[in-house]
Amino acid sequence: MKFILNTGRTVTQGRHVEHKYHQGYFEETSSCFIHPLDLMDLDLEDGEHVEVVSEWGSVVLRAVSCEDLRKGMIFVPLGPFANHIIPPRTHSTGMPDFKNITVELARTERERLTQWELMEKIGGKRYENQ
Amino acid sequence: MKINDVVCPFCGCLCDDLEITVEHNRIVAVDNGCTLANAKFMSKEQLASPIRRTGEGWENISYDEAIQYTVDMLLDADRPLLYGWSGTHGEAQCIGVHVSELVGGIIDSTTSVCHGPSILAIQEVGHPGCTLGRVKNRADVVIYWGCNPLEAHPRHMSRYTTYADGYFLQNAFRERKVIVVDVRETETARVADEFIRIKEGGDYAVLSALRAIVRGKGDVVPESVAGVSRSQLERIVTLCKDAKFGAIFFGLGLTMTRGKYKNVRNAIELVDELSRHTKFTITPMRGHWNVYGSNEVFTWMTGYPYAIDFCRGIAFYNPGETSAIDLLARKECDACLIIGSDPGAHFPRGCVEHLAEIPTVVIDPVPTMTTALADVQIPVAVSGIDADGTAYRMDGVPIRVRKVIEPTLPNDREVLKSIHAKMKEAKGQ
Fold first, then answer.
1. Do both B69 and B168 map to the same domain?
2. A96 touches B: beta carbon within 8 Å
3. Average pLDDT in the B36-52 region?
4. Nearest chain A CA: its distance from B320 CA (Å)
């Protein structure tokens, strides 16, 4: 099913800005907020996993029921998960389309990667000497 | 020991009324702060020493080694990018400009992924702004457009708008009307007197419709514009025209959607129209605590607010070409110094991939997503906690951030000064 993806700040994401390797940051930024009726259409329960596919790639997120949204729109807090599928195109303005992107959603049994695994997938190395 | 009137170095509000309790050079309590301030002041995640990536993992290195690595990296590069700057103080930003000029590099701040388009619009049509103090004391209509202050700037409404007392308002809470325009019914929308829910990407059309109605050309506006009824738009215009003083605050809902700076230009031009009837102002909701400062410092040093390229030996500015996202997406830069920001978390993957391929140094107190992509990270004192310096609030008011505990690490300007001095030495200057 096609949806419009918006990304943005949440207070939980903001609270973890200096604690990015914490579980709380992972849970918040890998959440995909969806209208409850859309959850039903996708045959998803709150907390189950959903694959979000854009023209730039795909990422597995945790579906979270949210009535703040209009039907047909999803919201993902800004972070490495949302940015995994945001195209790096700026239309010559310097600013990518972080909002209002067309994506496809489908239920999945696959697990989410962690934020470090996403970085390692593109050649990064996790820092664990905490 | 209690320290009063501490400035919070988190968001562009720069709240200056925090009360910090310090015991044995550690912060043990934060009063008056929002949840974001508490998390920042109480954070104990600072790295203790610089780190370098090895084949297997990470090793601790000395400051001298880390600074020498950075100097060599920048001097060896043909097209270095120096990015971030919004999470550090103005004095460090000054040195950053000098370093960029010395290596003929590009300096860009997080502006390019937040209110860069707002600056492009302001360069086209000007900025009818004012201080937050004026809004607090005078505004009887406040519009939040494409922003969610309760989550991103949690004390904005209590210090400057909805819940703040106003010198020229008898009963500010009742007299002040708050209008929220958003695609989501956020917490902020729920406390507003009027919520306008627009369809995604409909900002430009709704702003144009409002301008037409203000001009007395409402008959050309269709029954519904981007999901908003004409009757609601007419009601809003009446509210605005009847206001004694109106203030629009706008966020990334305008700058990140299709149209980008044209959306912001339309919003500024709506303010222009409304100011023919009453007094109206407009202010971007700046995110990082000193992102406005980066624009001020870069402008008074180079003539341009962000995305400045020194490769020609003079300052050159062309967002879309010299901005960090475009440089990384084109895989053009061959080394990167990152300070006071986390592109690893906040840039699209297509840009972050290139960061992982080129030599990258991060100057940041805590491990971030960008740490994973870096070769070296240099931890520093946190501006506003164990380092002082100048910051600019979202309305352009400079505020000195204070040091509340004694530092155990060098601060940003000290590290950058060492880098700059060694580079000058290497170049025989």
1. no
2. yes
3. 94
4. 4
